[in-house]
Amino acid sequence: MDFRFTPDEEQFLKEVQAFLDEVLPPDWLGVDPDGHNEQADEDLHQFDLEIRRKLAARGWLGLQWPKQYGGQEAPMMKRFILEQELIYRGAPYWAISAALMTGDMILQFGTEVQRQEFLPRIARGEMQWCIGMSEPNAGSDLANLQLKATEDGDSYVLNGQKTWQTGAYYADWVILYARTDPNVKKHKGITTFLVDLKSPGVSMRRIPQITGHPAFCEVFYDNVRVPKTNVLGALNGGWGVALFGVATEKSFGYWLINSGRRDLQMLIKYCKETRDVDGRLLCQDPLIRSRLAQLAIELDVGRNLGMRLNWMATRGMPIVATACQLRPLGGSILQRLSHIGVQTLGLYGQLDEHSEWVRLRGRMKYLYLASVAMTIEGGTNEASRNTVASVGLGLPRG
Amino acid sequence: MDLSLTEEQEMLWKSARDFLASKVPKTLVRQMEEDERGYVPELWKEMAELGWVGLPFPEQYGGGGFNFLDLVILLEEMGRACLPGPFISTVILGGMPVLEFGTEEQKKAILPKLCKGELIMTMALTEPSAKYEAKAVQLEAHHDGDDYVLSGTKLFVNDANVADKMIVAGRTAKGHHPPEEGVTLFLIDRTAPGVSVHLLKTIAGDKQCEVTFDKVKVSRDDVLGRVGHGWEIVKKVMELAALAKSAEMQGGAQQVLEMTIQYGKDRVQFDRPIGSFQAIQHYMADMSIDVDSARVSLHKAAWMLSEGIPCRKEISVIKGWLSEAYRRVTAQSHQIHAAIAFTKDHDLELYFRRAKAAELYFGDADFHREIVAQELGM
Questions:
Q1: Confidence check: pLDDT of A246 > 90
Q2: Which positions of chain B have pLDDT values less than 50?
Q3: A138-159, pLDDT tens digit by residue?
Q4: Residue of A141, A282, A288, A297 for testing the chain B interface, max B β-carbons within 10 Å
Q5: Distance from CA of B348 to the nearest CA of A (A)
Q6: Residue A301's domain spans which residues?
Q7: Which of B293, B299, B332 to mutate to test the interface with A (most CBs of A within 10 A)?
């Protein structure tokens, strides 16, 4: 057993850390691991584009892809290291990751033409992708999606609606799931399409969220034509593509934990520097000490499971169950963290970030609102537990 | 990074599991809860012959030369089996401090016998204040010529009823010193004049004792480590003990999870296995999160220790986590098993009681949260 990175990986980690020291402002508060503020705020979006270009210049996008498609053929662990550090430091990563994930899927299911068309552009940081799964009546029950794709000559014609689409507003393309056969079992009539969001007939409406940020979009498809060459994988094979996609989105629970480490450090620092009315440092209050230490324990334990997840992935072991264990763990820890954060700041905890009295620049209040999504998005805690139970524990399906 | 067990560790794990499954049926576990000694000497001998008792000690003292991670793997299986007896007391509380802090004479006199299974040990640390803190060591040890004379009471001493030798923490200097100074450790035979041992009845039926010292004479040669510097040793040993106990807890939690999953598949109500109900599935998913995240954290701490990497925080992370997680897992399992398992006919209640006791041993979650807070510079 050895929990260390190899010297090569260690070297890469240092390079990534140095890169982040260079590109992030010294007082960087961090973006959300789920991309919500980054996909709603114009300045943050511009910063995301800048980071993306710089990562691409280093050859760090598509690290483990074949060189012929713009990759580096690097070991998978390097991508995990990059991911972990970007998230931990709160660098923009969500949109980058959505593109990389799409790239992974194109590499797995795509035609040679699709690989050559899309992968190098993703590796150069030139494409922003979003994922078109959820619909008003297809949330956790994804197979119930109704957006229709009808064959017409050498195209398919899309009609219907997607919703809760993070990042659609800034995205160039969407990886879209649509119903191609309504007469078979729900999950057997779905096909995956690569769709240019500038196509005629696509329109969208931004949806402001609890944080005030409009990161979500409703996206409407009104007779949108997609060439047949943009079908990803087999016709009616979309469920398999979706499952692969969900499995590659495996690290989300671990992302939350890495992001939470930064927030906890910020909170601990505040408690080491701030005195209460008796002149005592907050961190000397036994109750606060205990709460913060408990959060540190939870984040550590979650981080260890995340390391195991990544290691399993590099070994080609089945990871879906472990990934689904990390989701509820990570999301729940962040919700507790933000709750305790606000509580520790006391009355200050509720202040808006623009208030002159604000503490920690409103981060804890913001996280308290933002973390509501973190036990829901990309698979609810309950859906994750279902998967843990059936795939991980082998329990009979209900 | 390589998070798999080595072939040797796999072998140790499997052989431990098979051996304990055949030699330690739950009838024996229950019998030992009522037994005055609380262990089976023949089994102890067999475990010594398998090399388990001497596992982490160097070969020159008759040990196996294995590292702490190997020991943790063995302890997980002991926890799974609810193995009764003085294993942690002898190996961790007794043998480890002798190995690390004893004189060569002490090591030669104690360790080979210990490894052969001929010497049971423990540490007498806690007192009626029931705290694992330096200031809680109040047992008086005063100088008398070449000897020390010890008087006072130790409480919650593990396995003192069967220990041949104990390491006793006494206070040799009082007054202006900080409490960490002035603690001295003494090697004392249980049969020494003035020592008396009374068994306590506890929630887990393990053997904890009140040990009283009435003017017990100890020679200067039987001081372990330096006079007045015993607390440094205690601190180190308590870390090892917290990690060892965590390993036992991990094994117990793992077994409870597996039992529960099996029950969920077998038990039929409303014409279907209860494991197909979402409410039950979600309980079990949460149990598995507790157990699986603990295991990798346990192994990380043990690996760091084996590599000589400082790991005070990591040990407190795992003991702090498992002190709550093991209890949570057993309680949840009871809820899933319902009436059948809070009878004395069922194994689960053994684990439920042990989880609570283990939580209290070598620092509970509050205790370890405080250490984590210190390690984070608070």
A1: no
A2: none
A3: 988 999 999 999 999 999 999 9
A4: A297
A5: 19
A6: 244-392
A7: B293
Provide the domain count of chain A.
3
Residues of chain B positioned with their CB less than 8 A from the CB of A5: 1
The correct CATH number of B7-120 out of 1.10.8.60, 1.10.540.10, 1.20.950.20, 1.10.760.10 is 1.10.540.10
Q: Please give the residue of chain A at the shortest CA–CA distance from B315.
A: A297
At residue A251 the predicted structure's pLDDT band, cuts being 50, 70 and 90, is confident
Check pLDDT > 80 for residue A247: no
Shortest distance between the Cα of A305 and any Cα of chain B, in A, equals 5
CATH code at B232-375: 1.20.140.10
Interface test with B, best of A80, A261, A344, A393 (most B CBs within 10 A): A393
> Is B317 touching A (CB cutoff 8 A)?
yes
Closest in A268, A324, A396 to B376, CB measured: A268
Q: What is the mean pLDDT of chain A?
A: 95
A82 and A31 in contact (C-beta within 8 Å)?
Answer: no
Is ipTM over 0.95?
A: yes
Same domain, A358 and A282: yes
Tell how far CA A349 is from the center of its chain: 27
Give the gap in angstroms from C-alpha B269 to the nearest C-alpha of chain A. Answer: 13
**Greatest CA separation for chain A:** 78
CB of B262 within 8 Å of a chain A CB? The answer is: no
pLDDT at A220 over 80: yes
Q: What is the pLDDT of residues B125-155, one digit of tens each?
A: 999 999 999 999 999 999 999 899 999 999 9
d(Cα B128, Cα B112) in Å, to the nearest integer? Answer: 34
Q: How confident is the model at residue B230, as a pLDDT?
A: 97
Query: Largest alpha-carbon pair distance within chain B?
Result: 79
pLDDT of residue B146: 87
Instruction: Please say if the pLDDT value at position A368 is more than 80.
Output: yes
CATH number, span B122-229: 2.40.110.10
Say how many CB pairs under 8 Å bridge A and B: 155
- CA–CA distance, B235 with B134 (Å, rounded to integer): 9
Residues B16, B77 contacting (CB under 8 angstroms): yes
